[in-house]
Each structure stands twice: as C-alpha cells, then as structure tokens.
Automatic annotation (TrEMBL):
InterPro entries: Flag_bb_rod_N, Flagellar_basal_body_rod_CS, Flagellar_FlgE/F/G, Flg_bb/hook_C_dom, FlgE/F/G-like, LlgE_F_G-like_D1. It comes from Siminovitchia terrae. The keyword Isomerase does not apply. A flexible structure which links the flagellar filament to the drive apparatus in the basal body. The lineage of its organism: Bacteria, Bacillati, Bacillota, Bacilli, Bacillales. Residues 5-35 form the Flagellar basal body rod protein N-terminal domain. Residues 96-168 form the Flagellar hook protein FlgE/F/G-like D1 domain. The keyword rRNA-binding does not apply. This is Flagellar hook protein FlgE. PROSITE patterns: FLAGELLA_BB_ROD.
Amino acid sequence: MLRSMYSGISGMKNFQTKLDVIGNNIANVNTFGFKKGRVTFKDMVSQTISGASEGDGNRGGVNPKQVGLGSQLASIDTVDTQGSMQTTGRVLDVGIQGDGYLVIKDSSGMEKYTRAGNLFFDNNGNLVTASGDIVQGYNANGQLVGIKIDNPETISNLSIGEDGVISYKKGEDTFSDWTIAIARFSNNGGLEKVGENYYVHTNAAGTIETGRPTENGAGKLVSGVLEMSNVDLSEEFTEMIVAQRGFQANTRIITTSDEILQELVNLKR
C-alpha cells in the first residue's frame, strides 16, 4: 500500500523532468545548431518477497516473487542528428553537413565546440561567433590558432569552401591562407552543454580528433546556410501528451493509496 504511494511519487518526479526537457526542446526550436534532449527511464530496485527455487524429481521450480519500488531516470541524452539547413546567402554563415563541431576559444583560453555557424569579423579582424569568441583554424604553417585577417574591410570576393578554406582578395592579390578547423569525438552525446550554443569536452565524449573539413570522416562546410535545430515539434507535442498522461496516472496511484489509508484509519470508530 505505502509502496505504491512511493512508486507514484517517483513516477511523478520522472515525468516532471521529462516535461522540463520537452519544454527546453520547444524553447530552442529555432536555435541554430541546437540538439534536442531525450529522457529515458529505468525501474528502481525491486523488493524480493521470496526467492526462486529450482525443481527436483518430485517438485517443480518456483519463480521469484518481487515487488517493484518505482522508476528512476536512466539518462538524459543529447540526440546528435543532422538539422535541416536554412539558406541565408551570407558568406560567413556556415553549416556543417555531417560529423564535427567548430572549434572555439573564449577569452580565458578555454576550448569549446559549436554547430552554430553564424560568424563575424570583429574590429581586430578576428573571426568570431555571435558571443565574440574566436574561431580556430589552420594558418599557412599548419598551426591551429585563432583565425585573423588584417583589415577585413579591405578584402573582396570572400568565400568559404567545403574543405573550410577561406579565400579572399586584397587588391589584385588572392589569398587562401586559412582553413576552418573541425573537431570530432568518439561519443558526441558525451559532450556537456554550457549555454550560448557551446559544448565542452568530457571524459565520456572520448578522444578529440581535430582536423580539416571533409578529411578522415569529418563533415563538410556549406557557406551561405545555417544548420537549424533538430527539434521536431510534432514529436515533442506527442511526447508532451505522453508525459502529461503518465503524470496523471501516477497522481491517481497516490490518490488511491491515500483512500485506502483513510479506510484503515476509519476501521476504528
């Protein structure tokens, strides 16, 4: 009787968390490069009333008798599927088609990763994200450093190739001395979200492989487009209904258990 009440409470908490994740997904339906979350459950420990026993020549075996004690969160996954591409026509808007993340360094030197490719040149010629953090790339010497082009206001014919090479003209001279870097991980789901469309590496993400687009399995860069969120509103609303009904069912368990307790209290009048 009391076990059922606590089972209902555990179910309510889990569905509250599921609704929190769904709400965040819907709130970020138009966030560039956003990857939706997904909640999974698992059962909690079961109380064994009597154990199993094997049969012999005179008597058959008996299965264990167990009562479950509710559910708990199994995982909150980041679903790393490809989002649709939205055409913008702006050269410095880049979408990643395939596996990989842009490599970013903030003002403290911390390395971060993002799929949001709305980039800009700041007043010093650094290629930066919307948050002002510098995009990393390979220079003419093959070094991985922050991308910087002096006097970006004087360049023309700017283009970014599928292989990440930035080409531009200054006067009559043509330059292709920068390549945008892409990082790949053994387990993309192991990256930790830190806000502002950024991820940071964790041990669960495995090894980091930083390289050039289109090489060694890395995705290609598409200039003039941005990757949209991979949130499917129809799926999220369906999951919202499932979570709502699951929450209601668990509240009914608690109500029913309370009514039985009330009957017990009223046995002595």
